[in-house]
Amino acid sequence: MTPPPGPARRRRRGLVEVLNATFKHWSLLPAVLLFTLLTAYPVVNLLRMAVSTIEFREGGENWSFTPLHNWSLLLADTALAPVVRNTLVFVAVAVAIEMVAGLALALLIGGLARGKAVMRTLMIIPILVPPVAIGSMFKLMFNHDFGFFNQILGWVGIAPVSWLGSTKLALLSVIIVDVWHWVPFIFLILFAAVEGLPKEVLEAARVDGATRGQLLRRVTLPLLMPALTVALVFRAILAFKTFDEVYLLTGGGPGTSSELLSLHLYKVFFEQNQLGYGALLSVFTIIGVLSLMVLARWLTRRWALR
Amino acid sequence: MIKLSAASRAALLGWLMLGLALVVIVGPFLWIAVASFKQPIAILSGTWSFTPTLDNYTDVLLSKRSDFLAGVRNSLIVAAASTAIVLVVGTLAAYSLHRFAWARWVTLGFLGWTLAFHMIPVLTLVGPWYLAFKQLGLYDTRLALILTHVSVNLPMAVWLLMSFFKDIPPEIEQAALVDGCHPLSAFWYVVLPLVVPGLIAAGVLAFVFSWNEFSIALNLVSQSNATVPVVVAKFAQDYEIQHGQMAAASILATIPALVLMVFGQRFIVQGLTMGSVK
To answer: What confidence tier does B276 reach under pLDDT thresholds 50, 70, 90?
Structure first.
């Protein structure tokens, strides 16, 4: 390539030199700008919204400073207690099942001589499928009249059940879908850890006469502990965000029997158009999630020190 | 009864597990795929013997009432653009944090904030985004979705690529610099080619997450800019639920994930597990 003549070439040289000299700074700049504008600014805006009432009029929105109004909405929100309870139950039960099933699968598949690759391929599918498609698929399978689950019950001679339409079963049905969706994720993390276990240590324990139970309790599980902790923390935090599947499956119903936190935020913001109160709830949610994060960090630190 | 040796018992158990996993994971897709070829009557009666029809698919793809193809176009534009931005911005940020001596508060602040943001339910921020984009005149544009998807996927890309950068022996880059390479050329010609697997992993994941993203798209755009998940949800939400179309739309929305699984599997597994194991 022929270099551009004279001054233009010098200017380009200069630009390259400047870019080289300031590489450290301009390389981080776009990410910082993006995060400031798209995440930090909205969070600050949330604080402003939380003390305001925002109404849409013709030609724009109308903000008024009404800090107490949003607190009174909070106290009057009868759905809030069930929503918090549902969310805690959902996270605890779903994540517990996913951890146990994921660990069992990882250990069993890890011990196989063949079929590991096939298994891993299969397990990726639910993670990559759009959650909305999963919700819509299971909504069909939970259908009272022709759904797959009631078909199975029919084969065994049990009367059809209203999976999504009864206050007792709705949350359980959402949990079933979540377990189907996320056991593979736990499996992938733990499977990678199982494959990375030091073979010599396990072999030494076996040679020393450890039974299968002892091997699992005393050697394998302690070695897997870091991966287990990471999987648990990751999954629990993601479980708090669950929205798509519930939105499609039950819409939080019947009543509030399966309404989770994210869905409630959606309803307050976009169905009831309470942007101020929604912001107040969001602030509490963020504080709650961040405290959990700090707690999890503290717990894992303590675990690491022991 | 036949007595089995321990080894063959383990093998049998293995095959059983595989079979079970196959049924549990693939079963729902098969059931839905079968339903998607049924006429409404065959679906409602739950029969297994029926004459297959493509009506549901032609209805989802071609009918005037359906926005599916427009949704595919919107999703492709949003996912491709946001993935490209995520890769460029994320690679530069990850390299900068990894390579240069930033003050501790900068590194910790940046990583801490992205981590915190990654954990917050995204619906807490959709409200402020909605207001901000309305003020900027970006409400109901694909640009709004592209920007928000970038911010959602950027943390994942930065962490993932940082762990890939850390795997490169520092001597390689030092050798290039000693030989008179500029920092920029060292980055471009020496370091970047070594993290191509990381770029693919981050790219595939960012694309899939953007393609699948629902809660932002539901609230920041209306019908004409709706993405595939919003369109799929509509089939399940309408007052007269069309079961056949719902099944067909779910299957169609799943195809890109399956294609990526076939071609990008190694990178996806690496991407999904790497951040957590390290």
So the answer is: low
CB within 8 Å: A54 and B253: no
Q: What is the ipTM of this complex?
A: 0.87
- Do the chains contact at B119 and A282, CB–CB below 8 Å? no
pLDDT at B79: 95
Cβ <8 Å between B269 and A188:
yes
Which 263-282 residues of chain A touch chain B by CB within 8 A? 265-266, 269-270, 275, 278-279, 281-282
Consecutive H or E run containing B198: helix B196-212
Q: What is the pLDDT of residue A11?
A: 67
CATH of B57-277, one of 1.10.3720.10, 3.50.50.60, 3.20.20.370, 3.10.580.10: 1.10.3720.10
A38-69 per-position pLDDT tens digit: 998 999 999 988 888 888 777 677 788 887 88
CATH 1.10.3720.10 intervals, chain B: 57-277
Q: In 3D, which of B216, B244, B245 has the Cα closest to residue B230?
A: B216
Cα B10 vs. chain centroid, distance in angstroms? 36
Q: Residue B45: pLDDT band by 50, 70, 90 thresholds?
A: confident
Residue of B110, B112, B108 whose CA lies nearest to B120: B112
- Report pTM: 0.89
User: What is the pLDDT averaged over residues A98-124?
Assistant: 84
| HSE-up of residue A20 (Cα within 13 Å, Cβ side) | 15
Task: List, in order, residues 6 or more apart from A16 with CB less than 8 Å away.
Answer: B182, B184
Q: What is the pLDDT of residue A88?
A: 93
Q: Which domains does chain A have, with CATH numbers?
A: 1-34 (no CATH), 79-273 (1.10.3720.10)
Sign of the C-alpha dihedral, residues B77, B83, B86, B92? negative
